[in-house]
Amino acid sequence: MTTFAPTSPPDLPRTRGDLLARGYVPRSVKAEMQENLLGRLRDGLPTLPGIVGFEDTVGPQVERAVLAGHDFVLLGERGQGKTRLIRSLIGLLDEWMPYVEGCEINDEPTAPVCARCRRLAGELGDGLPIAWRHRSERYGEKLATPDTSVGDLVGDIDPVKVAEGRSLGDPETIHFGLVPRTNRGIFAINELPDLVERIQVALLNVLEERDIQVRGYNLRLPLDMIVVASANPEDYTNRGRIITPLKDRFGAEIRTHYPLELELEIQLLEQEADIHAVIPRHLLDIVARFTRGVRESPAIDQRSGVSARFSIACVEELSGAALRRSAIAGDDEPVARVGDLIDIVPSLRGKVEFDVTEEGYEDETLVLLARQATADSWREYLGGQQARPFLTHLVEWFDQGNTLATSDVMSSRAILQAIGPMEGLGAVISAAEPGMAESPGLAASVVEFAAEGLWLTRRIDKDDDGVTVTYGSNAAEVDDDDA
């Protein structure tokens, strides 16, 4: 994980003697994180900033694991924020940590463990030079892949150092792997079951005895770190498993989940999506309901899960559709519309694993779920008394033989000119978007939302030729209660 750490403050001690003179007391990583976490809890500060939907479920379990000094595994489907959660643990470390200058494994200045630093400490005493590492540099991460070797994780003989004339038995000829290089920090392993079993064995000592052994060296290097891993449920991946001795060495197994409430799903979209256009609130609500519908659909392979990246990509595609229309139609403000959602469904298909029985009907399934979400959102936003006058006038307008055409390149002005000044338009905009300032783009988006909902509730008709959508009168009589 590439980091760009700030430069350490110039007033920090630069030798071991100066460090001790300032009252420095060494602490283990776990003790450091425990103290900082307790401080945040006492002050009422967020312990896992940037994590949405875990405040009352996963968060307390992680806090208990950290306070217990446990290594732990996060188990959950893809896109549930496991990696984001692990990386947020960096915030529980001290901002700056002293270490022996030039040490590959970040040795504690008062008690170095590697051969090089012990030698220097013996030679220089309190003059041992120290440097400072920012907490963002104290995090190591490895994506488990079948080709990962013991040397990658633990270390191996460095042939260059041997070629320089050092003895093959010299401990300083070792090239340390990712684990020891994260000494005095947090080491994360993503998708742990993908690590072949013989490589998982190499981690047994790290988790229990807190040391590493490299090849045939008579070397036991004590490590100070917290190890966190992530994994998908084994019944989905089928690519491997966490071996029983390794699983037993993790102090806790914590199950993650998707946002449990619709509002949290929307909050996640607002936080994570890279949006460059106006996405009205009612569209965020539709996308959130759409995502939840996909996760619950029997047509979807639920063992794989539906990642939060599905909904985030959906919102970003809506933003792109609005920007494209604005450039083509000349709208002053790019605003997404509900009609854009159906157009982007094919681009989302690759993010979902379908049940084998649905082969050939993937797009149709997603379109149906998107329309169900739109209908539910329409009832939520426009089903009240505030929107009813405009909806009544709009149905009457269609019954008079008028039609409303819209497309992915039709300007907002064209839509508003088509319906003309209609009583209740301001009220329906306020009902759908109470927190947004009125604009032609927003008004056109709400009008299209209103028309789409009337069609979904069978109040009007709709014709779609693949390019232009035309709303018109529905000859069949439908009871007003259907809306």
The number of domains:
2
Instruction: Strand order, main sheet: write it out.
Output: 4-7-10-1-11
Record field, number of beta strands? 14
Structural class, by secondary structure, is alpha/beta
| Largest sheet: number of strands, sense, barrel closure | 5 strands, parallel
* Poorly predicted regions: 476-483
Distance between the termini: 52 Å
Strand content is: 5-15%
Give the name of the CATH superfamily of the largest domain.
P-loop containing nucleotide triphosphate hydrolases
CATH fold node name of the largest domain: Rossmann fold
Which oligomeric state applies?
Answer: single chain
Q: Shape from CA axes?
A: elongated
Name the CATH class of the largest domain.
Alpha Beta
Helix content: 40-55%
Q: Number of helical runs?
A: 21
Concise overview:
The protein has about 475 residues and is an alpha/beta fold. It has two domains: about 15-255, P-loop containing nucleotide triphosphate hydrolases (Rossmann fold, 3-Layer(aba) Sandwich), CATH 3.40.50; about 260-480, no CATH class. It has helices at about 15-20, 30-45, 60-65, 80-90, 115-125, 150-155, 160-165, 180, 195-200, 205, 235, 245-250, 260-270, 280-295, 310-330, 340-350, 360-380, 390-400, 410-420, 425-430, 440-455; strands at about 70-75, 95-100, 130-135, 140-145, 155, 175, 185-190, 210, 220, 225-230, 250-255, 405, 460-465, 470-475.
